[in-house]
Amino acid sequence: MSAAVLVSGANGFVGRTVVKALIERGDDVIGLVRRPQSDMLGVREWVLEGDGFAGIEDRWPPSYRCGSVIHLAARVHMMQDTATDPLAAYRETNVRGTLRLAKASHAAGAQRFVFVSSVKAVGNSDHGRPLREFDQPAPNDPYGVSKLEAEQALLAYGVESGLEIVIVRPPLVYGPGVRANFLRLMHGIAAGVPLPLGAIPARRSMIFVGNLAHVLIQCATDPRAAGRTFNVTDTHDLTVTELARMLAAKLNAPARFLAVPASWLRFAGTLTHKTEQVERLISSLQLDTSLICEVLNWHPPYSTEEGLSLTAAWYRSTH
Question: What's the pTM?
C-alpha cells in the first residue's frame, strides 16, 4: 500500500466525497477532524481539537505518517460575519493554520501538499473574460484575502522546504449535501416560489463535488501537478437563468421565474442593503480551466447535467 493520504476537514461536505473516493481507490486515509464521526468507515480518524491547528507538530501521532495532504479545512466565507476583526480571524485559520499543517505534515513525511483555495483569492467577478491562473489577484473580502495570503505563504514554504505545493481554486461547489445559497435556491424552486431569475445572462462557473474530489486526488498523485496553481470547474458554465431552469426540471418543480432586469435587481439590492448578495447573483464569474486540461489532461468525470441530477435526487430524498 502507498503512503497514507491525510485529508483535513474529512467530515465536511467536500471532505466526505474525497475520503470515499480515496477509499474506493484502495488508499490508506487519515481523516483529520475537529469532532469524532461514527460513520467514517475505513478511515484512520484523527480528532484534533482547537483552532488553527495550534500545536499540531507536537501532537502528531508517530504512527500517522503520510505521503500527501489534501487540505480542505478552513474558516469559510460568511455573509454575516460576527467576528470583531474578520480578517484576523480568517488569517489565524486560513493562513497561519494552513502553514502549521504544512510544516507538521512535511515533518511527518509528506512530499505533496494540495491546498484547496478559492476563486475568491482572485476576485468576485471576471470583468468580461474568464479568469486565468496568472491574472493579477484582487480579492475584495477578508476570506479571499486570507486564501491568497495562504497560497503565497505555502509557495514560499515549498521553496524553502522542498514540499511540493499544489494550489486548486474552485468556484461554487455543489452536490449531495450542499448547504448555504445553493440549498436555499433549491428550497425556493422546490416550493414553487416565484423567483426573479428569468432574465439573468451572467454565467457562473461551478464544480460538482464529485469532479472536485476527482481532481484533488489527481493533484495529490500526479507528478506533473507539483508547484502548479489550477482553476477547476465542470468546464460547462450555465447562465443563472439556465441553472434555475435546469434545477427546476431536475426537481420536478414548476419553473416560476420572473424576467426582472439586472438593473432593477441591483436597485433593489441598494434599497435593502443587500448589494453584495445581488452582485453575486447577477455578475459573471467564469474561470478558464485550459491549464489543468493541458498539464494534467484532466477532464471532469461528471457533466453539469449529471451533477445537477445527482444533487436534485439527494434533495428529493432528504427534504
Answer: 0.95
When pLDDT is averaged across residues 202-225 and rounded to a whole number, the result is 97
Tens of pLDDT, residues 16-63: 999 999 999 999 999 999 988 877 788 999 999 888 999 999 999 999
> What pLDDT is recorded for position 1?
47
Residues 148 and 274 in one domain: no
Provide the residue range defining the domain that includes 262.
180-201+239-282
Cell numbers at residue 232, please? 477547476
| Annotation marks residue 174 as catalytic | no
Quick one: 212 and 274 in the same domain?
no
* Residues 128 and 187 both lie in one domain: no
Of the candidates 303, 245, 70, the one whose C-alpha atom is nearest the C-alpha of residue 166 is: 70
> Are 57 and 163 members of one domain?
yes
pLDDT of residue 238 exceeding 50: yes
Regarding whether 216 and 67 lie in a shared domain, the answer is yes
CB 141 within 8 A of CB 123: no
What average pLDDT is seen over the chain? Answer: 94
For the chain, how many structural domains are there in total? Answer: 2
The C-alpha torsion from 94 through 281 and 130 to 259, rounded to 10°, is 170
Q: Which three cell numbers stand for residue 208?
A: 460538482
Maximum separation of any 2 CA atoms in the chain, in Å: 60
Percentage of the chain beyond pLDDT 70 is 97
Calpha distance 110→4 (Å, rounded) = 9
Residues 94 and 5: their CA atoms lie apart, in Å, by: 20
Kindly name the residue from 90, 143, 174, 302 that is annotated as catalytic. Answer: 143
